Amino acid sequence: MKELNTILYLIFSWIITVHAGNSFYKNGRIYLLNMLEGNASLTDTVNKLLLTGYYMINLGYVIIRLTFQEGIFTISDLLEDLSSKTGNIMIILAILHFFNLSVIYIYHRTIEHKKQIHI
Amino acid sequence: MKTSFILTAYLIYLPVAVLLTWYVARTLFNSGKIFMMDIFNGRQEIATSTNKLFEVGFYLMNLGFALLILKIGYEITSGQVMIEALSRKVGGYSIYLGIMLFMNMSLFFRGKKVSRERQRLAQMMQQKNDQRGFAE
What residues 3-42 of chain B have any CB closer than 8 A to a CB of chain A? Predict the structure, then answer.
């Protein structure tokens, strides 16, 4: 059971991380390009940095959680353990994601505000 | 191996939670597309990608929460106890989903308000510039 738990956990977290990361990377580029006023090279750099940071935090958390294993004997134990771990990861991802979106948006608004003052 | 009540409860709860989330997200973000088109002045590309970003965030947050509250902490001895436990879980989760839906909707409405104000500001600037042009 313990081995199965570990393997399933790694598979699930890998799928979620890669899938969400890809989606953020692809759709986030256009969002960033809009928010950084069409500065393409800056957009690509920021996007890549964000993706790297995302993978770092996420994979680090996955590995940390991997070591906290208790006795797992039945399938329901396995489901409980898996779901609590995966749920934790997903919520952390979502919070990070919304935080990133709002930071970018606030940055965009500050730039616009400065421009208006200049006019 | 004989399946216990608790495993049955989990096997019922998981698909129900996933289906509920999927249904709410689909409804919300099909309408969200129209809101986003309005917010971004009809620029299709940025509207759909922002909508998609919000959608993925919504899925992550709510499925994560659904998985987090999956655990039933006490012994389930009969079918009645199982149904009671399940109804608590599913009901609580759907109330949470409803609150999330309204939060997202208020976000959309706020975005719309901000974009309308910005448009009005731009118009005012335009008029001012035109008047200045006349005076000179």
Answer: 4, 6-7, 10, 14, 40
Structure tokens at A15: 């799928």
Q: What pLDDT tens digit does each residue of chain A (119 aa) get?
A: 778 888 888 898 889 889 888 888 888 888 888 887 778 888 889 889 989 988 998 888 888 888 766 677 788 888 888 888 889 889 988 998 898 888 888 888 888 778 777 66
CB-based contact B111:B35 (threshold 8 Å): yes
DSSP sequence for chain A: -HHHHHHHHHHHHHHHHHHHHHHHHHHHHHHHHHHTTT-HHHHHHHHHHHHHHHHHHHHHHHHHHHT------SHHHHHHHHHHHHHHHHHHHHHHHHHHHHHHHHHHHHHHHHHHHH-
The answer to whether B66 contacts chain A (CB < 8 Å) is yes
Query: Which among B40, B45, B64 has the least Cβ separation from residue A94?
Result: B64
ipTM of the complex, rounded to two decimals: 0.83
Check if A119 contacts B (Cβ < 8 Å).
Answer: yes
Q: Residues B14-53: pLDDT tens digits?
A: 999 999 999 999 999 998 888 888 888 878 888 888 888 8
pTM for the model: 0.84
Taking the CA of residue B67 and the nearest CA in chain A, the distance in Å comes to 5
| Amino acid (1-letter code) at residue B52 | K
The answer to whether residue A1 neighbours chain B at the CB level (below 8 Å) is: no
Alpha carbon A46 to its chain centroid, in Å, reads 15
A-B contacts at Cβ under 8 angstroms:
90
